[in-house]
Amino acid sequence: xxxxxxGALIPIFALMIPIVAIWTRHQQKIAEMNVKSTAEATxxxxxxxxxxxxxxxxxxxxxxRIVTDGGYNVATQIEALRDQRRVEGDxxxxxxxxxxxxxx
Length: 104
What we know:
Order of helices and strands: HH
Helix content: over 70%
Low-confidence stretches: none
Radius of gyration: 39 Å
């Protein structure tokens, strides 16, 4: 290379250094913003899971109380509710036939 080509490359390299520095800072800021948004999303999900776990623990406590306080007649109560639904769901009673008259 001759001195003229090297003389032309020196200002180009001199200008590229700040451009690369600015681009690197920009990429670093983008990475920090991504980390921050990911951390916020993770914290929000953790709070939701914590709330859900607390609800499930409360339900388990209620079920334990039902089983221990009421004894083992829970199955009987469930069957009674099922029977009640069957009766309510069916057309219970005797069908009336008005067209056919009964003889006395």
